[in-house]
Amino acid sequence: MSCSCFERKPGIYGCEVNNIFINETNQMVEFQCDHADGLSNDDVTFLTIQLSDMQFMTRSIFDSFVNLSELTLYRITLGQLVPTDFAGCKLKSLTINHNWLREITAGVFAACSDLEYISVGGGILHTIDENAFVGLVSLEKLSVFDVPILEWTHFFDPLPHLTKVDIFVSVFSRDEFPSTLLHSLTKLQSLNVSMYMAREFPFNFFNNATELTQLSMIVGSIRTIDPFIFQPLVSLECLEINSHLISSIHQNAFARLVNLKVLSLASNDLSSLNQSTFARLSNLVSLDLSQNPLITVSPAIFAPLVSLEYLILRNTFRVNLTAVHLNNLRTLDISWASFFRILTENTFINFPNLEVLHMAHNSLGNLSSNVFRSNTKLRYLDIAWNGLNNILETNFLESMVQLEYLDLSDNWINSADPTMIIETNNLSYLNLSRNSCISDEFHRNNMTLLVDNMEQCFEHFYQTTSTIPSTIPDENDGHVVAMLDVRLVGILIVWNFVNSVS
Protein backbone atom coordinates (compact mmCIF):
# COMPACT_ATOMS: atom_id res chain seq x y z
CA MET A 1 0.00 0.00 0.00
CA SER A 2 1.61 3.27 -1.12
CA CYS A 3 1.72 6.19 1.31
CA SER A 4 2.27 9.87 0.67
CA CYS A 5 4.67 11.19 3.30
CA PHE A 6 5.17 14.79 4.35
CA GLU A 7 6.33 16.99 7.19
CA ARG A 8 3.46 18.80 8.91
CA LYS A 9 5.87 21.13 10.67
CA PRO A 10 9.53 20.82 11.67
CA GLY A 11 10.05 17.57 13.51
CA ILE A 12 6.48 16.29 12.90
CA TYR A 13 6.57 13.70 10.11
CA GLY A 14 3.76 11.48 8.87
CA CYS A 15 1.86 9.76 6.06
CA GLU A 16 -1.45 9.88 4.24
CA VAL A 17 -3.10 6.81 2.74
CA ASN A 18 -5.94 6.74 0.21
CA ASN A 19 -7.71 3.76 -1.36
CA ILE A 20 -6.61 1.12 1.09
CA PHE A 21 -8.64 -2.14 0.86
CA ILE A 22 -9.15 -4.27 4.00
CA ASN A 23 -12.15 -6.57 3.79
CA GLU A 24 -11.15 -9.34 6.19
CA THR A 25 -10.53 -9.43 9.93
CA ASN A 26 -6.80 -9.28 10.80
CA GLN A 27 -5.86 -8.74 7.16
CA MET A 28 -2.22 -7.63 6.93
CA VAL A 29 -1.14 -4.79 4.66
CA GLU A 30 2.35 -3.71 3.64
CA PHE A 31 2.76 0.06 3.74
CA GLN A 32 5.15 1.33 1.06
CA CYS A 33 6.10 4.91 1.92
CA ASP A 34 7.81 7.51 -0.26
CA HIS A 35 10.13 8.60 2.54
CA ALA A 36 12.46 11.53 2.21
CA ASP A 37 16.17 10.79 2.38
CA GLY A 38 17.25 9.64 5.80
CA LEU A 39 13.72 8.92 7.03
CA SER A 40 11.90 5.62 7.55
CA ASN A 41 8.69 4.19 8.98
CA ASP A 42 10.19 4.61 12.45
CA ASP A 43 10.07 8.41 11.98
CA VAL A 44 6.33 8.47 11.21
CA THR A 45 4.38 9.95 14.13
CA PHE A 46 1.01 10.66 12.46
CA LEU A 47 -1.01 8.68 9.91
CA THR A 48 -4.22 9.60 8.05
CA ILE A 49 -6.27 6.90 6.32
CA GLN A 50 -9.17 8.31 4.31
CA LEU A 51 -11.57 7.58 1.46
CA SER A 52 -10.90 3.86 1.57
CA ASP A 53 -12.64 0.49 1.59
CA MET A 54 -11.32 -0.46 5.00
CA GLN A 55 -14.00 -2.43 6.81
CA PHE A 56 -11.77 -3.61 9.67
CA MET A 57 -8.79 -2.30 11.60
CA THR A 58 -5.48 -3.97 10.81
CA ARG A 59 -2.54 -4.71 13.10
CA SER A 60 -0.32 -3.67 10.19
CA ILE A 61 -0.77 -0.02 11.19
CA PHE A 62 0.96 -0.33 14.56
CA ASP A 63 3.42 -2.99 13.35
CA SER A 64 4.61 -0.78 10.48
CA PHE A 65 4.72 2.50 12.40
CA VAL A 66 5.98 1.64 15.86
CA ASN A 67 6.26 5.28 16.97
CA LEU A 68 2.84 6.33 15.73
CA SER A 69 1.25 8.83 18.13
CA GLU A 70 -1.61 10.28 16.03
CA LEU A 71 -4.09 8.30 13.90
CA THR A 72 -6.99 9.66 11.82
CA LEU A 73 -9.59 7.39 10.19
CA TYR A 74 -11.79 9.56 7.97
CA ARG A 75 -14.58 8.62 5.54
CA ILE A 76 -13.73 4.95 5.27
CA THR A 77 -16.01 1.90 5.38
CA LEU A 78 -14.91 0.95 8.89
CA GLY A 79 -17.88 -0.93 10.31
CA GLN A 80 -16.74 -2.19 13.69
CA LEU A 81 -14.11 -1.78 16.38
CA VAL A 82 -13.04 -4.30 19.01
CA PRO A 83 -10.65 -3.85 21.97
CA THR A 84 -7.89 -5.92 20.37
CA ASP A 85 -7.67 -3.48 17.45
CA PHE A 86 -5.57 -1.12 19.55
CA ALA A 87 -3.53 -3.59 21.59
CA GLY A 88 -0.01 -2.32 22.21
CA CYS A 89 -0.52 1.05 20.52
CA LYS A 90 1.19 4.22 21.76
CA LEU A 91 -1.36 6.65 20.41
CA LYS A 92 -1.69 10.10 21.93
CA SER A 93 -4.42 11.27 19.51
CA LEU A 94 -7.20 9.32 17.76
CA THR A 95 -9.79 10.69 15.32
CA ILE A 96 -12.57 8.44 13.95
CA ASN A 97 -14.97 10.58 11.95
CA HIS A 98 -17.61 10.03 9.24
CA ASN A 99 -17.19 6.29 8.87
CA TRP A 100 -19.60 3.33 8.81
CA LEU A 101 -19.57 2.68 12.54
CA ARG A 102 -23.05 2.33 14.02
CA GLU A 103 -21.97 2.05 17.64
CA ILE A 104 -18.98 2.27 19.91
CA THR A 105 -19.11 -0.42 22.54
CA ALA A 106 -17.85 -0.55 26.13
CA GLY A 107 -14.09 -0.75 26.65
CA VAL A 108 -13.18 -0.63 22.97
CA PHE A 109 -10.34 1.87 23.63
CA ALA A 110 -9.15 0.33 26.89
CA ALA A 111 -5.72 -0.52 25.41
CA CYS A 112 -5.06 3.15 24.55
CA SER A 113 -3.96 4.12 28.03
CA ASP A 114 -1.67 6.88 26.69
CA LEU A 115 -4.44 8.57 24.69
CA GLU A 116 -4.76 12.30 25.40
CA TYR A 117 -7.25 13.30 22.69
CA ILE A 118 -10.08 11.43 20.95
CA SER A 119 -12.72 12.60 18.47
CA VAL A 120 -15.60 10.39 17.31
CA GLY A 121 -18.77 11.07 15.38
CA GLY A 122 -20.43 11.62 12.03
CA GLY A 123 -21.42 9.09 9.40
CA ILE A 124 -24.03 6.63 10.66
CA LEU A 125 -22.77 6.47 14.24
CA HIS A 126 -25.88 6.15 16.37
CA THR A 127 -24.87 5.09 19.88
CA ILE A 128 -21.87 5.46 22.18
CA ASP A 129 -21.91 3.24 25.25
CA GLU A 130 -21.54 5.07 28.53
CA ASN A 131 -18.45 2.95 29.25
CA ALA A 132 -16.87 3.29 25.80
CA PHE A 133 -13.92 5.31 27.08
CA VAL A 134 -13.23 3.42 30.30
CA GLY A 135 -9.48 2.96 30.77
CA LEU A 136 -8.41 6.23 29.14
CA VAL A 137 -6.78 7.49 32.31
CA SER A 138 -4.64 10.07 30.45
CA LEU A 139 -7.43 11.54 28.30
CA GLU A 140 -7.50 15.35 28.39
CA LYS A 141 -9.64 16.31 25.37
CA LEU A 142 -12.79 14.61 24.07
CA SER A 143 -14.98 15.48 21.07
CA VAL A 144 -18.28 13.75 20.29
CA PHE A 145 -20.46 15.06 17.46
CA ASP A 146 -23.37 14.15 15.19
CA VAL A 147 -24.59 11.36 17.45
CA PRO A 148 -28.41 11.24 17.67
CA ILE A 149 -28.81 9.78 21.16
CA LEU A 150 -26.53 9.58 24.18
CA GLU A 151 -27.79 7.75 27.24
CA TRP A 152 -25.21 9.09 29.67
CA THR A 153 -25.50 9.92 33.34
CA HIS A 154 -22.04 9.06 34.78
CA PHE A 155 -20.15 8.93 31.52
CA PHE A 156 -17.27 11.18 32.65
CA ASP A 157 -16.67 9.50 36.01
CA PRO A 158 -13.65 7.43 34.81
CA LEU A 159 -12.13 10.44 32.99
CA PRO A 160 -10.98 12.73 35.80
CA HIS A 161 -8.23 14.44 33.79
CA LEU A 162 -10.45 15.91 31.07
CA THR A 163 -9.79 19.61 30.52
CA LYS A 164 -11.72 20.12 27.27
CA VAL A 165 -15.00 18.53 26.15
CA ASP A 166 -16.97 19.10 22.93
CA ILE A 167 -20.41 17.44 22.77
CA PHE A 168 -22.61 18.05 19.72
CA VAL A 169 -25.65 15.78 19.88
CA SER A 170 -29.36 15.98 19.17
CA VAL A 171 -30.86 14.66 22.38
CA PHE A 172 -29.96 12.75 25.52
CA SER A 173 -32.21 10.00 26.85
CA ARG A 174 -34.33 12.79 28.36
CA ASP A 175 -35.07 16.27 27.11
CA GLU A 176 -32.62 17.75 29.59
CA PHE A 177 -28.98 17.47 30.53
CA PRO A 178 -28.31 14.78 33.15
CA SER A 179 -27.70 16.76 36.34
CA THR A 180 -24.63 14.71 37.34
CA LEU A 181 -22.98 14.63 33.91
CA LEU A 182 -20.11 17.01 34.74
CA HIS A 183 -19.76 16.42 38.46
CA SER A 184 -16.55 14.38 38.21
CA LEU A 185 -14.80 16.89 35.90
CA THR A 186 -13.16 19.10 38.50
CA LYS A 187 -10.33 20.00 36.07
CA LEU A 188 -12.57 20.97 33.15
CA GLN A 189 -11.47 24.24 31.52
CA SER A 190 -13.34 24.29 28.19
CA LEU A 191 -16.82 23.01 27.34
CA ASN A 192 -18.61 23.31 23.99
CA VAL A 193 -22.04 21.72 24.09
CA SER A 194 -24.82 21.58 21.54
CA MET A 195 -28.14 19.86 22.24
CA TYR A 196 -31.10 21.19 20.32
CA MET A 197 -33.81 19.30 22.18
CA ALA A 198 -32.82 20.39 25.70
CA ARG A 199 -35.57 22.40 27.39
CA GLU A 200 -33.67 23.40 30.52
CA PHE A 201 -30.49 23.00 32.53
CA PRO A 202 -30.62 21.32 35.92
CA PHE A 203 -29.88 24.08 38.45
CA ASN A 204 -26.79 22.19 39.75
CA PHE A 205 -25.39 21.23 36.34
CA PHE A 206 -22.15 23.24 36.74
CA ASN A 207 -21.72 22.76 40.48
CA ASN A 208 -18.19 21.28 40.33
CA ALA A 209 -16.96 23.14 37.23
CA THR A 210 -15.20 25.85 39.20
CA GLU A 211 -12.11 25.70 36.92
CA LEU A 212 -14.11 26.22 33.71
CA THR A 213 -12.81 29.24 31.76
CA GLN A 214 -14.61 28.81 28.41
CA LEU A 215 -18.22 27.76 27.78
CA SER A 216 -20.08 27.69 24.48
CA MET A 217 -23.68 26.48 24.35
CA ILE A 218 -26.06 25.87 21.46
CA VAL A 219 -29.30 24.77 23.08
CA GLY A 220 -32.22 25.09 20.72
CA SER A 221 -35.19 24.78 23.07
CA ILE A 222 -34.04 26.72 26.14
CA ARG A 223 -35.87 30.04 26.45
CA THR A 224 -34.77 31.42 29.82
CA ILE A 225 -31.47 31.89 31.66
CA ASP A 226 -32.19 31.73 35.36
CA PRO A 227 -30.15 33.39 38.14
CA PHE A 228 -28.56 30.17 39.42
CA ILE A 229 -27.19 28.17 36.48
CA PHE A 230 -23.87 30.04 36.12
CA GLN A 231 -23.20 30.84 39.78
CA PRO A 232 -20.50 28.16 40.30
CA LEU A 233 -18.47 29.34 37.28
CA VAL A 234 -16.31 31.82 39.15
CA SER A 235 -13.34 31.29 36.79
CA LEU A 236 -15.28 31.72 33.54
CA GLU A 237 -13.69 34.10 31.02
CA CYS A 238 -15.53 33.35 27.76
CA LEU A 239 -19.27 32.62 27.45
CA GLU A 240 -21.23 32.08 24.24
CA ILE A 241 -24.95 31.27 24.38
CA ASN A 242 -26.65 30.60 21.09
CA SER A 243 -30.16 29.23 21.29
CA HIS A 244 -32.27 31.17 18.77
CA LEU A 245 -35.05 30.97 21.37
CA ILE A 246 -33.68 32.64 24.50
CA SER A 247 -36.06 35.51 25.21
CA SER A 248 -35.39 36.20 28.88
CA ILE A 249 -32.24 36.64 30.97
CA HIS A 250 -32.56 37.13 34.71
CA GLN A 251 -30.90 40.32 35.90
CA ASN A 252 -28.57 38.28 38.17
CA ALA A 253 -27.73 35.55 35.66
CA PHE A 254 -24.15 36.85 35.22
CA ALA A 255 -23.70 38.32 38.71
CA ARG A 256 -21.00 35.82 39.79
CA LEU A 257 -19.04 35.94 36.53
CA VAL A 258 -16.70 38.70 37.65
CA ASN A 259 -13.80 37.33 35.54
CA LEU A 260 -15.79 37.23 32.30
CA LYS A 261 -13.98 38.86 29.37
CA VAL A 262 -15.99 37.70 26.35
CA LEU A 263 -19.79 37.41 26.20
CA SER A 264 -21.82 36.54 23.10
CA LEU A 265 -25.61 36.51 23.20
CA ALA A 266 -25.93 36.69 19.42
CA SER A 267 -28.75 35.10 17.42
CA ASN A 268 -31.33 34.81 20.16
CA ASP A 269 -34.87 36.13 20.70
CA LEU A 270 -34.12 38.86 23.21
CA SER A 271 -36.51 41.80 22.97
CA SER A 272 -35.29 43.54 26.14
CA LEU A 273 -32.50 43.47 28.71
CA ASN A 274 -32.69 44.47 32.33
CA GLN A 275 -30.59 47.50 33.17
CA SER A 276 -28.64 45.41 35.73
CA THR A 277 -27.83 42.49 33.39
CA PHE A 278 -24.16 43.47 33.03
CA ALA A 279 -23.78 45.19 36.41
CA ARG A 280 -20.90 42.98 37.64
CA LEU A 281 -19.02 42.59 34.36
CA SER A 282 -16.39 45.29 34.82
CA ASN A 283 -13.73 43.05 33.23
CA LEU A 284 -15.71 42.38 30.06
CA VAL A 285 -13.68 43.12 26.92
CA SER A 286 -15.99 41.92 24.14
CA LEU A 287 -19.82 41.94 23.93
CA ASP A 288 -21.87 40.61 20.99
CA LEU A 289 -25.63 41.30 20.98
CA SER A 290 -26.13 40.99 17.23
CA GLN A 291 -29.15 39.33 15.61
CA ASN A 292 -31.61 39.98 18.42
CA PRO A 293 -35.03 41.69 18.08
CA LEU A 294 -34.20 44.16 20.83
CA ILE A 295 -36.54 47.11 20.36
CA THR A 296 -34.82 49.59 22.61
CA VAL A 297 -32.08 49.41 25.22
CA SER A 298 -31.20 51.90 27.89
CA PRO A 299 -27.69 53.32 27.43
CA ALA A 300 -27.23 52.81 31.18
CA ILE A 301 -26.86 49.07 30.60
CA PHE A 302 -23.35 49.70 29.23
CA ALA A 303 -22.21 51.90 32.12
CA PRO A 304 -20.57 49.09 34.15
CA LEU A 305 -18.55 47.87 31.14
CA VAL A 306 -15.52 50.04 31.81
CA SER A 307 -13.09 47.59 30.11
CA LEU A 308 -15.15 47.02 26.95
CA GLU A 309 -13.14 47.21 23.71
CA TYR A 310 -15.36 45.37 21.21
CA LEU A 311 -19.11 45.97 20.88
CA ILE A 312 -21.14 44.17 18.21
CA LEU A 313 -24.67 45.51 17.67
CA ARG A 314 -25.18 44.26 14.12
CA ASN A 315 -28.82 44.01 13.08
CA THR A 316 -29.96 44.50 16.62
CA PHE A 317 -31.73 47.45 18.18
CA ARG A 318 -32.25 51.14 18.69
CA VAL A 319 -29.82 52.69 21.11
CA ASN A 320 -28.84 56.30 21.70
CA LEU A 321 -25.10 56.09 21.18
CA THR A 322 -24.57 59.67 22.29
CA ALA A 323 -25.54 58.62 25.82
CA VAL A 324 -23.17 55.60 25.86
CA HIS A 325 -19.75 56.28 27.41
CA LEU A 326 -17.11 53.67 26.52
CA ASN A 327 -13.70 55.28 26.69
CA ASN A 328 -11.81 52.06 25.90
CA LEU A 329 -13.95 50.97 22.95
CA ARG A 330 -11.81 50.09 19.90
CA THR A 331 -14.25 48.27 17.61
CA LEU A 332 -17.94 49.07 17.04
CA ASP A 333 -20.23 47.25 14.61
CA ILE A 334 -23.62 48.89 13.95
CA SER A 335 -24.09 47.52 10.44
CA TRP A 336 -27.51 46.36 9.19
CA ALA A 337 -29.24 48.75 11.59
CA SER A 338 -31.57 50.57 9.21
CA PHE A 339 -32.83 52.94 11.91
CA PHE A 340 -29.46 54.77 11.75
CA ARG A 341 -30.40 57.52 9.33
CA ILE A 342 -28.69 60.58 10.76
CA LEU A 343 -25.32 60.84 12.46
CA THR A 344 -24.46 64.03 14.32
CA GLU A 345 -21.17 65.35 15.61
CA ASN A 346 -22.05 63.85 19.01
CA THR A 347 -22.90 60.30 17.86
CA PHE A 348 -19.41 58.90 18.49
CA ILE A 349 -18.10 61.60 20.80
CA ASN A 350 -17.85 59.24 23.78
CA PHE A 351 -15.64 56.70 21.93
CA PRO A 352 -12.32 58.58 21.77
CA ASN A 353 -10.22 55.42 21.21
CA LEU A 354 -12.35 53.96 18.41
CA GLU A 355 -10.21 52.33 15.69
CA VAL A 356 -12.62 50.12 13.70
CA LEU A 357 -16.18 51.15 12.75
CA HIS A 358 -18.64 49.08 10.70
CA MET A 359 -21.74 50.97 9.49
CA ALA A 360 -22.57 49.15 6.23
CA HIS A 361 -26.17 48.44 5.16
CA ASN A 362 -27.88 51.31 6.93
CA SER A 363 -29.97 54.23 5.69
CA LEU A 364 -27.54 57.10 6.03
CA GLY A 365 -28.23 59.94 3.63
CA ASN A 366 -25.26 62.14 4.43
CA LEU A 367 -22.40 62.69 6.84
CA SER A 368 -21.57 66.05 8.35
CA SER A 369 -18.01 67.29 8.33
CA ASN A 370 -17.77 66.98 12.14
CA VAL A 371 -19.28 63.52 12.62
CA PHE A 372 -15.90 61.92 13.38
CA ARG A 373 -14.21 64.92 14.96
CA SER A 374 -13.60 63.00 18.23
CA ASN A 375 -12.36 59.85 16.55
CA THR A 376 -8.85 60.79 15.55
CA LYS A 377 -7.62 57.20 16.06
CA LEU A 378 -10.03 55.68 13.55
CA ARG A 379 -8.15 53.45 11.08
CA TYR A 380 -10.91 51.32 9.51
CA LEU A 381 -14.26 52.72 8.30
CA ASP A 382 -16.90 50.76 6.39
CA ILE A 383 -19.97 52.77 5.30
CA ALA A 384 -20.87 50.78 2.20
CA TRP A 385 -24.47 50.15 1.12
CA ASN A 386 -25.98 53.34 2.48
CA GLY A 387 -27.72 56.27 0.80
CA LEU A 388 -24.75 58.62 0.86
CA ASN A 389 -24.69 61.24 -1.90
CA ASN A 390 -22.62 64.40 -1.46
CA ILE A 391 -20.30 62.84 1.09
CA LEU A 392 -17.17 63.79 -0.84
CA GLU A 393 -18.01 67.47 -0.56
CA THR A 394 -18.26 67.57 3.25
CA ASN A 395 -14.60 66.92 4.07
CA PHE A 396 -15.71 64.41 6.70
CA LEU A 397 -12.27 62.74 6.60
CA GLU A 398 -10.40 65.77 7.88
CA SER A 399 -10.19 64.68 11.53
CA MET A 400 -9.33 61.03 10.77
CA VAL A 401 -5.62 61.49 10.29
CA GLN A 402 -4.83 57.79 10.88
CA LEU A 403 -7.48 56.35 8.56
CA GLU A 404 -6.08 53.55 6.36
CA TYR A 405 -9.15 51.66 5.11
CA LEU A 406 -12.28 53.30 3.69
CA ASP A 407 -15.20 51.53 2.00
CA LEU A 408 -17.75 53.81 0.29
CA SER A 409 -19.02 51.27 -2.21
CA ASP A 410 -22.67 50.89 -3.22
CA ASN A 411 -23.80 54.41 -2.33
CA TRP A 412 -25.33 57.23 -4.40
CA ILE A 413 -22.25 59.39 -4.72
CA ASN A 414 -22.70 61.19 -8.04
CA SER A 415 -20.39 64.18 -7.95
CA ALA A 416 -16.95 65.43 -6.88
CA ASP A 417 -13.51 64.14 -7.79
CA PRO A 418 -12.73 60.87 -5.96
CA THR A 419 -9.02 61.21 -6.67
CA MET A 420 -8.95 63.99 -4.07
CA ILE A 421 -9.48 61.40 -1.33
CA ILE A 422 -6.42 59.45 -2.40
CA GLU A 423 -4.26 62.54 -2.80
CA THR A 424 -5.17 64.27 0.45
CA ASN A 425 -5.33 61.32 2.89
CA ASN A 426 -3.06 58.51 4.05
CA LEU A 427 -5.37 55.76 2.81
CA SER A 428 -3.90 52.38 1.97
CA TYR A 429 -7.23 51.10 0.71
CA LEU A 430 -10.22 52.85 -0.86
CA ASN A 431 -13.35 51.28 -2.35
CA LEU A 432 -15.68 53.53 -4.38
CA SER A 433 -17.10 50.85 -6.64
CA ARG A 434 -20.71 51.01 -7.85
CA ASN A 435 -21.09 54.77 -7.38
CA SER A 436 -22.17 56.82 -10.38
CA CYS A 437 -19.31 59.32 -9.97
CA ILE A 438 -16.68 56.64 -10.55
CA SER A 439 -15.59 56.62 -14.17
CA ASP A 440 -13.70 53.99 -16.11
CA GLU A 441 -10.81 56.43 -16.32
CA PHE A 442 -10.64 56.60 -12.52
CA HIS A 443 -10.54 52.80 -12.35
CA ARG A 444 -7.70 52.61 -14.88
CA ASN A 445 -5.67 55.39 -13.25
CA ASN A 446 -5.95 54.11 -9.71
CA MET A 447 -6.06 50.32 -10.06
CA THR A 448 -2.30 50.12 -9.61
CA LEU A 449 -2.46 52.17 -6.43
CA LEU A 450 -5.17 49.96 -4.97
CA VAL A 451 -3.44 46.68 -5.79
CA ASP A 452 -0.01 47.88 -4.64
CA ASN A 453 -1.27 48.98 -1.22
CA MET A 454 -3.92 46.34 -0.67
CA GLU A 455 -1.82 43.41 0.57
CA GLN A 456 0.07 45.46 3.14
CA CYS A 457 -3.10 47.13 4.40
CA PHE A 458 -5.05 43.87 4.68
CA GLU A 459 -2.22 42.12 6.50
CA HIS A 460 -2.04 45.00 8.96
CA PHE A 461 -5.75 44.88 9.76
CA TYR A 462 -5.81 41.09 9.85
CA GLN A 463 -3.11 41.10 12.52
CA THR A 464 -4.95 43.83 14.42
CA THR A 465 -8.37 42.16 14.46
CA SER A 466 -6.84 38.76 15.18
CA THR A 467 -6.05 40.01 18.68
CA ILE A 468 -9.75 40.33 19.51
CA PRO A 469 -10.57 37.84 22.30
CA SER A 470 -12.03 34.57 21.09
CA THR A 471 -15.23 33.12 22.46
CA ILE A 472 -13.83 29.68 21.71
CA PRO A 473 -10.06 29.93 22.25
CA ASP A 474 -8.96 26.90 20.27
CA GLU A 475 -5.61 26.55 18.56
CA ASN A 476 -7.25 25.32 15.35
CA ASP A 477 -10.62 26.90 14.76
CA GLY A 478 -11.43 29.52 17.38
CA HIS A 479 -14.35 31.75 16.63
CA VAL A 480 -13.06 35.34 16.86
CA VAL A 481 -15.55 37.95 17.97
CA ALA A 482 -15.93 40.91 15.59
CA MET A 483 -13.14 39.65 13.35
CA LEU A 484 -13.31 40.66 9.70
CA ASP A 485 -11.03 38.84 7.29
CA VAL A 486 -10.31 41.92 5.24
CA ARG A 487 -7.97 40.00 2.96
CA LEU A 488 -10.87 38.00 1.55
CA VAL A 489 -13.05 41.10 1.34
CA GLY A 490 -10.26 42.83 -0.54
CA ILE A 491 -10.06 40.09 -3.14
CA LEU A 492 -13.78 40.44 -3.77
CA ILE A 493 -13.59 44.22 -3.99
CA VAL A 494 -10.70 44.21 -6.43
CA TRP A 495 -12.60 41.63 -8.48
CA ASN A 496 -15.44 44.18 -8.68
CA PHE A 497 -13.02 46.85 -9.83
CA VAL A 498 -11.56 44.59 -12.51
CA ASN A 499 -15.02 43.66 -13.76
CA SER A 500 -16.12 47.30 -13.90
CA VAL A 501 -13.10 48.25 -16.01
CA SER A 502 -13.44 45.33 -18.38
From TrEMBL:
Keywords: Leucine-rich repeat, Repeat. Pfam families: LRR_8. It comes from the Eukaryota. SMART domains: LRR_TYP (SM00369). The keyword Repeat applies. This is Insulin-like growth factor-binding protein complex acid labile subunit. It comes from Pseudolycoriella hygida. The lineage of its organism: Eukaryota, Metazoa, Ecdysozoa, Arthropoda, Hexapoda.
